[in-house]
Each structure stands twice: as structure tokens, then as C-alpha cells.
């Protein structure tokens, strides 16, 4: 199972930097190989090794998806990753907009393309995403909690773990959502907390 390594953010940044001005090339540096390379950088596992070296043209790409994938790129992604609503995509997840596959960087999508005469990585702002699809790149499980001091609220979401610490249970009624696209208020789950450092820090939500 593909899961992000502890230093995935550094690995992703190191992967993206040399590609900023690299032009698009079918089978070598296209949207599929770019996204797969990003996942490999974050997890140490290449999610699409069967496509490497199998095509060098647009027609060859379509043939490879039919032969080695699930028929098309979205279906192939569905078979390899957990599908999530595009509004819940966070940094490091894979997003498709207008058929272009890239990496979510929070407020924008990084993808291979061109802007004017410049070729390389481009930014597509969230508000400009068209018919977006998204897939989660998983995280490692958090360590178990220890007890028994105070009271806190923990909510598990695909966006990660969010912790709210309170003085007593009377305050553990409801908490504000951790993502703007979730409902206005969500039920809280009370549990004893000894050390907040036992939790993985909340994941960034841009």
C-alpha cells in the first residue's frame, strides 16, 4: 500500500524543482509520468511502472491505457488510488482538471504544460479547475493515544487528524469543521489526552 514517507514534503519539493522548465514529452514527461513520479517521490513506490517506456505519442498513450490500464486515465487512477471529492484534495494528492493530471499544492494544481512561450510546470488555481477529479495519496497511520489527563476532541478525516484541547467535558459539544467544504458543525468525540505530541500534527489545508 502506498503511503507518504515522514519527509514527503521535502521529497516532493526536491522532485518538482528540476522539472520547472522541463518541456512536455509523451512517455517521458507527460501528465501521467509526472504525477506518478510525484507519488514515487512521496511514497518510495512507483504507482505506474507498467507504463514506463511503453509509448512516445498521444496514440501510444491511449493504447497503453487500454492494454496496461483500465481503459482510460481516470479509470486507471480509480483502480490504483482512493477516489476523493475534488474540493477535499490537499497538498500532495493527485488531481485532474480538464483531462490534465497533476499534483495538488493546496491552492493550486501543479501540472506539465505551457504558458505563452514558457514550457514546464504550470499552476492552475483551484477556482479555475474544470470538471476536477481527485485521488488521495495515503498517509501512515498515527501512533496510538495514551491517557489519562484532561479532555480533548479528536476527529479523523481524510484531511488528517485535528486536535482541540479543552479543560473539561462541558466544552466537548461541537467544534468547527476543519475544512470549508465540510458541514457547518460536526459532532465531537471526547477522549482523554495525556500528551498531544502523541498525535501526528494536523495536515496543512490551504
Question: What is the SS-derived class?
Answer: alpha+beta
Q: How many whole angstroms does the radius of gyration measure?
A: 20 Å
Helix content: 10-25%
Strand arrangement within the widest β-sheet reads 1-6-2-3-4-5
Q: Measure the end-to-end span.
A: 26 Å
The major sheet is characterized as: 6 strands, antiparallel
Report the mean per-residue pLDDT as an integer.
78
- Given the structure, what is the number of helices? 4
User: What is the string of helix and strand elements?
Assistant: HHHHEEEEEEEEEEE
Q: Which consecutive residue ranges, at least 5 long each, have pLDDT under 50?
A: 144-206
Percent of residues in beta strands: 25-35%
Coarse shape = globular
Count the strands? 11
Topology (elements, then pairings):
Blueprint: H1 8-16, H2 31-43, H3 58-68, H4 73-80, E1 82-84, E2 94-97, E3 100-104, E4 108-115, E5 118-125, E6 133-136, E7 151-157, E8 160-166, E9 174-175, E10 186-187, E11 190-191
Antiparallel strand pairs: 1-6, 2-3, 2-6, 3-4, 4-5, 7-8, 7-11, 9-10
Helix pairs in contact: 1-2
